[in-house]
Design goal:
Blueprint lengths: L5 H8 L5 H8 L3 H8 L1 H7 L12 E4 L2 E3 L6 E3 L3 E4 L20 E9 L2 E8 L7 E4 L1 E5 L4 E4 L3 E16 H4 L2 H6 L10 E10 L4 E8 L9 E2 L11 E2 L5 E3 L2 E7 L3 E8 L5 E9 H4 L8 E5 L2 E7 L5 E11 L5 E11 L11 E6 L6 E5 L4
Antiparallel strand pairs: 1-4, 2-3, 5-6, 6-8, 7-10, 8-9, 10-11, 11-12, 12-13, 14-16, 15-16, 16-17, 17-18, 19-20, 20-21, 21-22, 23-24
Length: about 375
């Protein structure tokens, strides 16, 4: 390779299958590094008029407006703001389900490139509904599917969501065999919704399968009377791991996972051995449920973004509904931007497969 001219090496580098392979090539020697770093090469590898799986399509922006000087702020349905290179025109719906009428999309959950949205008429949003018009869309392809209306007898709130693909519903043997039929496993397969009835303080789970024409009847998740203190969900978007969708719940002192089978939708509540007290005062009181190397894990963030701690689940459930073992496995020191005096951490989001942790804190990301 040392005797090859630059133009030949560039032809080889431009054919690398993805960014990780190209990065490894660039780290091989200074010559390759300079070739890869050339703006002309980068424009050729990732043309501005095309989009690849890591393209930034845009973001949702939510407005709060006061109806009067002494009134509460009104929550508006967020608007989709496309990125400069996004194929979506400004302020337009992200898919074809909003062809007619003043329809806004409220993002609820995402997984494997799919986005679950709540379709709302008008600009204002309420806290609870009897009917939910939902859609699953693929922003990269511009395709979408409007789901049958999810109906309840009383006012309900959505407290948890999960999008399941064919990969999530395939057996481990099918995934390992990598047969051609698995090409369909990347398609949207099921949607799980955790609803909350404010009147009887009851959580229920509803399931929709792509091969069915209606939602399955809601099933109660757990008996609220078994818990002296009302449980509250800590994150809406589920984590999918080992054949189940998991949501994190908490009360004043303990954490729980609500675990729903991807096959049946049946949900059970599991108390975690990790407690709020074990986190200590220097950490946020709400960790983030995630997946690390195929294992269920918890990410806890220092209040001033100095470090992050990771606990992983070991083993299955044991008696009294507690997991067998949660072990502290890693501590990561975080480098903050210069002159960043973080006072409030609003939220953190762990990348589904990238291993990236996005933190929103005042005044910076």
């Amino acid at each position: 390779m040392e005797t090859l001219p630059d133009d030949v090496v560039l032809e080889i580098l431009v054919r690398m299958p993805d960014a990780p392979h190209l990065f490894r090539c660039a780290a091989t020697c200074k010559r390759w590094w300079f070739l890869v770093a050339q703006p002309s090469f980068l424009r050729r590898r990732w043309p501005e008029d095309t989009h690849h799986p890591s393209s930034l399509l845009g973001f949702f922006a939510e407005e709060y407006r006061s109806a009067g000087p002494r009134s509460y702020k009104i929550r508006h349905v967020p608007s989709f703001i496309p990125a400069p290179s996004s194929p979506f025109r400004p302020r337009s719906p992200i898919a074809s389900f909003a062809d007619a009428g003043d329809i806004r999309e409220l993002p609820l959950a995402s997984r494997r490139g799919f986005l679950l949205v709540h379709l709302l008429a008008g600009h204002h949003r309420r806290d609870a509904y009897k009917e939910f018009n939902l859609a699953v869309c693929d922003p990269l392809s511009g395709t979408s599917r409007v789901l049958p209306t999810l109906k309840y007898d009383r006012l309900f709130r959505i407290k948890g969501c999960a999008i399941l693909t064919g990969v999530d519903c395939c057996s481990k043997q099918q995934q390992q065999q990598q047969q051609p039929v698995l090409s369909t496993c990347s398609a949207f397969s099921k949607v799980l919704i955790i609803g909350f009835d404010n009147d009887d303080q009851q959580y229920s789970i509803s399931m929709f399968s792509s091969d069915e024409s209606s939602w399955r009847a809601p099933e109660n998740c757990f008996d609220p009377s078994e818990h002296g203190i009302q449980l509250a969900p800590s994150q809406v978007n589920a984590v999918v791991c080992q054949g189940a969708a998991h949501w994190l719940f908490r009360d004043n002192s303990n954490f729980y996972t609500l675990d729903a089978s991807v096959e049946t939708g049946h949900a059970t509540l599991t108390k975690l051995s990790l407690t709020l007290g074990s986190l200590g005062r220097n950490f946020r009181d709400v960790p983030r449920l995630s997946v690390t190397n195929g294992v269920l894990s918890l990410l806890a963030l220092h209040k001033k973004c100095l470090r992050a701690q990771i606990w992983t689940c070991r083993g299955d459930k044991k008696s009294r509904g507690c997991t067998r073992d949660w072990r502290h496995t890693k501590m990561i020191k975080l480098e903050r931007p210069e002159q960043n005096h973080t006072k409030i951490v609003h939220y953190m989001w762990a990348g589904e497969r990238s291993g990236v942790l996005l933190i929103k804190a005042s005044p910076y990301f």
